[in-house]
Write a structure and sequence with these properties.
Length: about 240
């Protein structure tokens, strides 16, 4: 399977910046690696109209409810109807600033999967948890709770992103060995949880992925791609991450 690079643009970019990005990106993107992009919800339709099918577009969050009286929420059914391909769920910023928990995220994950959206489910430890030696058990809990009571129909439906909280937006990256250790553990947990597909699910690394560390990270056995914030905002940088210099 090709390596997958997912751009998480968070709450950034104007419409013009979105248009300029795709203009530049499309000129050089060669599909050596898979590229998916998650713009702000307000820019989803525009992004979908500016890309061809080779770049997949998705959201950064969605509701557990499909529709109804839930003011301000993002319906996974409408995201699918719009042509959205995937949704990122459980990003550490959602956990930190919007009180999301793995248990609560389970409903969102299942709802999105029920709509045939691909889910990128994020897990990761804080620095305090790492220093207390809790990384692997904490991540195991996040996986068990967030992915409780669900099945997946094929290997494409679910992707896990390991993002150590202390590495997000800080310029500090986990060493390739630190990341690989956690990825190998995640793969084992997935294998037990989903015997038919678990070993083949993609596991992305996120947290200060940049052009100068991407190759070493992607060179690790269990790292199947990256979830990228800051370095995905400029087309030139994201192209380089996708292997197109
Ligand atoms: P970063 O963000 O690449 O800016 O560290 C990663 C993420 O939050 O997904």
């Amino acid at each position: 399977m090709k390596k997958l690079l997912v751009a998480n643009w968070k709450m950034n970019k104007t419409q013009k910046e979105v248009a300029d990005f795709f203009l530049e990106f499309k000129k050089s993107f060669s599909e050596k690696r898979d590229a998916w992009i998650a713009p702000q919800t307000l820019h989803l339709e525009m992004a979908l109209s500016l890309t061809k099918s080779h770049v997949k577009i998705g959201a950064q969050n969605c509701s557990e409810f499909l529709n109804g009286a839930y003011t301000g929420e993002i319906s996974p059914a409408s995201l699918k109807d719009l042509g959205g391909h995937f949704v990122i769920l459980g990003h550490s910023e959602r956990r930190q600033y919007f009180s999301e928990t793995s248990k609560g995220l389970n409903a969102k994950v299942r709802s999105a999967i029920s709509q045939n959206l691909k889910v990128i489910y994020c897990v990761g430890e804080t620095l305090t948890e790492r220093e207390a030696g809790q990384t692997l058990s904490l991540i195991e809990d996040q996986l068990h709770q967030g992915l409780n009571d669900m099945s997946i129909a094929n290997t494409e439906n679910l992707i896990i992103a390991y993002e150590p909280v202390w590495a997000i937006g800080t310029g500090k990256t986990a060493t390739p060995a630190q990341a690989q250790e956690v990825h190998a553990h995640i793969r084992q947990v997935l294998h037990h949880k989903f015997p038919a597909f678990g070993k083949m699910l993609r596991i992305l690394y996120g947290g200060s992925v940049k052009t100068d560390n991407v190759e070493e990270l992607l060179g690790q056995k269990d790292i199947d791609g990256g979830l990228v914030g800051g370095a995905s905002l400029k087309a030139k940088d994201f192209l380089a991450l996708c292997g197109d210099k």
